[in-house]
Each structure stands twice: as C-alpha cells, then as structure tokens.
Amino acid sequence: MASRKRTLLKVIILGDSGVGKTSLMNQYVNKKFSSQYKATIGADFLTKEVQVDDRLVTMQIWDTAGQERFQSLGVAFYRGADCCVLVYDVNSSKSFDNLENWRDEFLIQASPSDPDNFPFVVLGNKVDVEGGRTRQVSEKKAKQWCSAKGGIPHFDTSAKEDLNVDDAFATIARNALKNETEEELYIPETVDVNAAAAPRRQHLPADLYGSLQTGCGIAFMLALGFSALPILTGDARERNERRYLSPDADEGAENIRWSVMGVLSVLPFINPMAWVFAALDDEEASTLYWSFAFLYALPYLGNGFELDGFAIVSLLVCILHVQVERLAQTEPVEIELPSALRTLLSSIPRAVRSLGRYGSSLGGEVAERTRSAEEARRRRPDRKFLEERSREARAELEDFDRRRRERQAEQRRLAQQQEQREKERER
C-alpha cells in the first residue's frame, strides 16, 4: 500500500509562437536547451514528479502550438487543466499584448468552475537576449498587468540560462494544488503507444487495494470468530451431543458436504466455491454462506485473478475457516472459558450489527474512490485522439504551405505579365 498520495496536475502553457514555451518545458523537465527553433505541431506534453511540501505531485505539462491556425484544437487540450502558464517574449511587445487574448481564449475553452479565481502564472522569457538591451516589455509593466488581473504571479525567465525556471514551476505546482480536488489515481509508470494491443488484467489502484486488504483482514477474523462462536459458548457441544445420541438419515449427506467443502477450500481460485456449495446445500444458513463466498472471492477480484500474497493468505484462512465451521456444526466440542468471557461473547450480535454499519461506510468510500479515479481517467486526453488531431494539424499545415506557394507563384506570374504589358506600351 502506498505511503503517500500521488496527485496529477495538468498544466497548460500558452503564448505566441516563438516565445520559448517548448524550451521552458524542456529546460524544467530534461534540463536541456536547443537553440534550433522548431514549431510545435498541435500539442505535446511531458511529465515530471516533484515533491511539494509533503505531497508527491506528478506534473503533466502541456506545450501547445502558438500559431493561430491551431487554436481550434484548444478545447481538446484545455479541459481539466489545474493551472495555465502564459508566456511572452520580453523582446516582443506584441507577444505581451496578446496575453489578454490567450487568457480569455483559455477561460472560454476550458470553462473552469470558478474562472475569477483560476490560477494563472505569467513568464517573461528570453531576458538573456543581447544582455537585456533589446527588451521592449519592462518588468514593471508586466507586473502592473498581472496585478490588474487579480495578482497573477510573474517571473522573468531564461530557458537558455535556466534563470528562474525551477522557481516559476514550483509556484505553478503550488498554485495548481490549490485548484486541485484530491483524487486517488492510478498512474502507469510507462505507456507504449506502439505496442500491440494485448488483453491486460485490471488491478485496483494501490491505495484502494490496500484498503481492500485491511477490510478483508478484519472481515476474515470476524467470520472465523462468528463460526467459532458455538464452540466458545458451548452451543456446539450441547447440539452435537444430541445428534450423536439420535443420528438421522441426513448425517451421511452432511458428511459428504463437509468432505467436498474441504477439498474445494484448498484449491486456489476455486476455494470460494466451498461456501457456494454450502449455501446451495443448507437453505437455512444460505445467506451467511453466500456472504462467506463473496468475502473469499474479493482478493481475486481485487488483484485481477493473480495468486499474490494476499490471495494466498485468504486461501489459508479459508481452509481454516471451513474446518472451524465443520467442528462447530458436527462435533461435540467446547472450549472452557471464564463466565465473564462468556458474558462478553453474548454481546457478539451487537458487534456484528456495528460491523454492518462499518461495512456500509467502507462500501461508500470504495464507491467514491472508484468514481473519482474514473473521472480522473476521463480527464486525461486520449492518446489516439491526440495523434489523430496532430496528423490533421500537420495535413492542415502542409495544405496551408501549398496554398501559400501557389499564391506566390500566381503573384510572380501576374507581375511578369504586368511588366510585359508596360514594355509593350513603351514600344
């Protein structure tokens, strides 16, 4: 069971093309910088695990294309964001002026529940260019704009020199955590999108599986105690002595039942069927036996039908449980206990009712965590969908370039015709 909670934070980086969004992301995640410019097509993302105070945080940082023709893809990437980073080039006043448009567009596309308090962070990048001599947007002007928008944090950064990059993203993580509702998530360590699709066993998230182990351990002990109760209180001795004195015709069939249950209980994956067999054979106690069958099936359902340590422990408990139940139902045995302890055991029914209330509460918690994990899974963009959109964006870019070349060729042709006509008039 995990000792710390892992939180997934989705961070979107927005800004004009060429302001250094990709370089900032690569500098923070990979500690690398490339001076060669390459426009982002559609969107891309990187992840990084960081420790914020006492919490383990996985930052999923989305780098988006700055070209206007890709802005229609925004709704696919913005939804579910926990923080938005607005980046401008301090050497380009136009990129700073466009921050207003980027902020408004994000709020429209992402539709956060509380747009007035949604966390933004502004980064003024490329402060290293020409030693700051070409700077067009002063830090004072940028901070005034941020203050007017509700006190947005501002950092002067340089992806090339790694200036303030870590400090900026630490602030981004803290602000995103304030906006994040805590959820239990299952985050795979690696994802191979090129691997052939193969059937996989489903596992519960680590924290939820740990809760299941704890709950089942308590339930195992209570079930054993409940089956042993007739032995501890003396009811088994009195009832089964009468059976030995007055045997009936069903005794042979009952012996067969316990023999079959004993065999089934030692078989991995099959041992819950021992209690199913008992429920079908004994209508009077069928509800109790069905409950035991479900209890011993839970470890296999929780781990994807694998024989792990938890499943082996439940198998051993099941073997013991069947034998305890057999002794209580067929043998005139009794464990001598002090009278005070016998009185204490008489309160077991009240404890069982309390356990029922605890089980209802545990079931509600399991359902809530499962629903939260499912909602978090739906928030993560589908990789196949992103690949399709990226292919469409590349095709759109190629078509745009083709039309541009055709327009340039047409303009040259018209210019040549015009030049020829002017020469003819001069003659």
TrEMBL record:
GO biological process: protein transport
Keywords: GTP-binding, Lipoprotein, Membrane, Nucleotide-binding, Prenylation, Protein transport, Transmembrane, Transmembrane helix, Transport
CDD domains associated with the record: Rab7
One GO term describing the cellular component: vacuolar membrane
Location relative to the cell: Endomembrane system
Segments for region (Disordered): 369-427
Protein topology in the membrane: Lipid-anchor
Gene3D superfamilies given in the database record: P-loop containing nucleotide triphosphate hydrolases
Transmembrane regions listed in the UniProt entry: 218-237, 258-280, 300-322
Keyword presence, Transmembrane helix: yes
InterPro entries documented for this protein: P-loop_NTPase, Small_GTP-bd, Small_GTPase
GO molecular function annotation: GTP binding; GTPase activity
Family classification: Belongs to the small GTPase superfamily. Rab family.
The protein's name: Ras-related Rab7
Species: Chlorella sorokiniana (Freshwater green alga)
